[in-house]
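Standup notes
- HV: blocked on the assembly model, inputs below
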Amino acid sequence: MKNMKIVLLSIALMLFFASCAGQPAPDDALPNDVQNVDTQANDASENEQGSDSADSGVNSANSESIKIVYFDFDEFALTQGNMDIALANADSLSSSSASIKLEGNCDEWGSDEYNYALGLKRAKAVKDAITSNGIDESRISMVSYGESNPICSEKNKSCWSKNRRVETKFLP
Amino acid sequence: MNFLKLVFILFLGYVNVYSADVKLEIVKRSVATPNVYFINFTDSFVNKNIQKRVSKLIVGDATISGHMKPVEYDQGDETFISRIDYAKFKDLKADIVVYYKLVIDDDELSLGVKAYDINTNKTSYVKTYNVGKINNYPFLIHQMIIDLNDDLGAPDISWMKKLVIFAKKTKMNRSNIMVADYTLTYQKTVVSGGINIFPKWANKKQDAFYYTYLKKGGKPTIYKQSLRTARKNKIIDSDGVAIVSDISNDEKKLLITMSPKGQTDIFLYNLSSKSLKKLTRYKGIDVGGHFINDDKSITFVSDRLGSPNIFSKSIYDSKVELLVHHGTNNNSCTAFKNQVVFVSRDNARRKSFNLYMISTEDNGIKKLTSNGVNQFPKFSNDGESVLFIKHYRNQSSIGVIRLKYNQSYLFPLKRGKIQSIDW
């Protein structure tokens, strides 16, 4: 059926060439066949991952005593203020034995590998702080979401500063 | 088109002689670029919107090739031509006249093309293309312009028909993997659901790709997926980050950025043996490995000097060399032979990232972009073009820089934001 369609299309196009050129010049040979443009796009299929909502499988460590740690632009070192927050978080986390996930995040200024590494360095800085305060390292895993997991989407400095953060989550 | 072929040979000779002295100077457009008249001869009942889009794409491709000056020529009321009027087109300074006709039947699209060489009074060629689904028409146009370009004897532009793969952030916590033509006229989602980032073609055939899936609560995981069947296989996962940065020429090895112990390093992954070799061991950030020197060495980004910069090293020893001596905040790069294009953050305006090109053989440097956030530069196979992402005034675009012709073109994404790209 498809071949038949192509033949019909070819005939239509041959008529075009004939009308276009009138009495064909000697070199006006018409094509014998149709060139099928080969593109992988012809066959592309979609894979849908599981409906993975932002917080599925993890729970925010939403005890009021567990705080988000924020960072300055392009920085991953903890300021003294942030160190105090991380250490206070460690005190709160010590009352549980649940596994912990530290999620490093960045603002929207950059989406390359370096930005993801920056998010991880932020998570690592928090990890180092809380393990030095007694939290067992084996309880902790880390992930960097780079710029892909913002909590604020406005285009201003205040919003960007909210996205440069490390969140502490409990794993099930 | 022997005359035009000769012109292009002379033109290339000029480029080579010139570039032998000044490696990174951009060669100006040759005055010999032929005027190509495109005449739409599609029946009037065919969808006007499609005709308009096809016409726009033809002129766009011809312009971007750098090898022709396109003119959209309206025949007016002339619905029938008894014979092409070579004298008329000579008066119009046309070198080539291309008639084309679209035929649509159900969901099938075909294009007939007939080209005339006005300088020799001869028919250049006659071709008919079919691309199946109407939505795939951009690839049909790209192929048509590639063939016309080849017939002119101009340098290869087959990069136009390559598929671009990119991650598109659609909303918070959602990023899809898309395939597109280089102008983003054709787009199709191939992975959706959750955060899917850093797609990379698995082979030159472009029938499979790698990407990273950030599953909440799980480890970042690299999958390989077939483009045709959408079947995916897990390659590897890692705490922290897991990203395929590059694929070897034989498509059997990957450079992966991973952080199994909390520090990002570059690993060489053998797909056959599933073995990992750690290539960098610095305690800070090492990311973005790319093969160079016949896959014997890599370039990569490291903050080992206090801020990110581009380094190189052999995969066989630990010696590391600073590759880029410009700027102090260089976040990613792409290499082709002795040329390196890298992203450098502007020191004065820290939220501006621009592309620069250097030669590893001398100290020449060329700034390729001037504003916005420009990222993910990727050389074409022939090294003559660079694809990149541009974010400017809240819009993402794919950019194409035609290096020899000192031209760049942007193709904006209507909705969403492009996270990363490969072609």
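- HV (later): unblocked. The helical segments of chain A are 2-21, 80-93, 113-131, 157-163. Chain A is about 35% helix and 15% strand.
- Next: hand off to the docking folks.
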